[in-house]
Specification:
Rossmann fold; alpha/beta; 12 helices; ten-stranded mixed beta sheet; N-(1-d-carboxylethyl)-l-norvaline Dehydrogenase, domain 2
C-alpha cells in the first residue's frame, strides 16, 4: 500500500516505520530538525518489541511531492489540525482514507470539512512513544494498538486491506464496530492519564499507589464519562472499573502521557483539547467537572509552552 505518515512524530513515525519495514511504500512528512535528522541518519525506532532502523526512508516536507496515497496516518498535535489537513490535500484522492490518530475527541469533525467526510476515518491509538531525539522514536509500552472505523459503518475495501496488511506487519490493528464509543473511551482514559501525570509531575505508578491521587485519577475519568453520556454517546460504566484495574496491573508504572512529557520540555500543551474540552462540554451540557477544572487551572499558564 501507499501510506503517508502525517507527520513523522512519535505516533505516525512509529506505525509508519513498522509498515515500511514490512515492505509498504510509506512517505514520512517531517520538518525542521526531525526532517534533517531523518534525511541524514534515517528513522530509528527504539522499542520493547525490537529496534528498527530505516536507513533511507521516503521523507519530505512537501506533501505535493508524494501525490495521492491509499492511507494517511494523521497524527499531528491538536493545535495543528486544520493547518495540517490543508497541507494533506495533495495526498488525498477519491479512494484515500485519512485515519485520525490524534488525542482529543473532535478530530474527525475538524478534518472532514477540509478533506471530505467520506475520506475521513476516526481512529485511536494506545501506545507510549516519544521523540527521544530528532529522527529517533522511543517506544516504551508493551502495547501499540490502533483502532479505527467509519462512523457510518459502511463496508470499506481500503480499510479492510489496511487491517490485513497491518496485521501481517505484526501490528495490533482493529476495525472498530463502533468508532464513536472507541474514540470516547480513549478520550476518557487519556484525560485522566494526561491530567494526572502532568498536574502531579509524576509517572502513573506513584499516582495509582496513593489512595487520594488514585481517587482523583478516577474522578477525571468519571467526569469525562458523564460528559460523553450527556452528549448522547453509548458508554458502559463498567469501562471505568475495567480501565482502573488495567492501570493498576497492566500499565507500566513509569508511563507518562505525552502532555506530561511536553510540560517537562517546555513545549506547548494539548490542554485545551483534553481537560479544556471536558470543561467546555460540561458548561454546554450542564455537567459539573471539578477535577477537570482543577487540572486546567493548574496547567493553564503552561499551555503555550515556555
Amino acid at each position: 500500500m501507499r501510506i503517508a505518515a502525517m507527520a513523522a512524530g512519535a505516533v505516525g513515525g512509529y506505525f509508519g516505520a513498522r509498515m515500511a519495514a514490512a515492505g509498504h511504500d510509506v512517505f514520512f512528512i517531517a520538518r525542521g530538525s526531525n526532517l534533517a535528522a531523518i534525511k541524514a541518519n534515517g528513522l530509528k525506532i527504539e522499542s520493547v518489541h525490537g529496534d528498527l532502523h530505516l536507513p533511507k526512508p521516503n521523507v519530505t516536507d512537501d506533501p505535493r511531492s508524494v501525490g495521492p496515497v491509499d492511507v494517511v496516518l494523521f497524527a499531528v498535535k491538536l493545535w495543528d489540525t486544520e493547518a495540517a489537513a490543508e497541507l494533506t490535500r495533495p495526498m488525498v484522492g477519491d479512494g484515500t482514507r485519512v485515519i485520525t490518530l490524534q488525542n482529543g475527541v473532535d478530530s474527525v469533525e475538524r478534518i472532514a470539512p477540509i478533506l471530505g467526510a467520506d475520506r475521513t476515518v476516526g481512529g485511536t491509538t494506545y501506545i507510549a512513544t516519544t521523540i527521544a531525539a530528532p529522527g529517533v522514536i522511543k517506544h516504551t509500552s508493551a502495547f501499540a494498538k490502533m483502532v479505527f472505523g467509519r462512523a457510518d459503518r459502511k463496508p470499506d475495501a481500503t480499510l479492510d486491506r489496511f487491517v490485513a496488511d497491518g496485521t501481517a506487519a505484526k501490528l495490533d490493528i482493529t476495525l472498530a464496530a463502533d468508532i464513536e464509543r472507541e474514540r470516547w473511551e480513549k478520550f476518557i482514559f487519556l484525560t485522566a492519564m494526561s491530567g494526572s501525570t502532568a498536574t502531579f509531575r509524576s509517572s502513573i505508578g506513584p499516582i495509582i499507589a496513593d489512595d487520594e491521587l488514585r481517587d482523583f485519577f478516577r474522578q477525571l475519568m468519571e467526569e469525562a464519562f458523564a460528559v460523553g453520556r450527556a452528549k448522547g454517546v453509548t458508554l458502559d460504566h463498567a469501562f471505568i472499573d475495567e480501565r482502573m484495574a488495567a492501570v493498576q496491573s497492566k500499565v507500566e508504572p513509569g508511563m507518562k502521557a505525552s502532555m506530561a512529557h511536553d510540560l517537562e520540555r517546555g513545549n506547548r500543551l494539548e490542554l485545551d483539547w483534553l481537560a479544556g474540552k471536558v470543561r467546555a462540554l460540561s458548561r454546554e451540557l450542564g455537567v459539573p467537572t471539578p477535577a477537570s477544572d482543577t487540572v486546567y487551572r493548574v496547567l493553564k499558564l503552561h499551555r503555550m509552552g515556555r
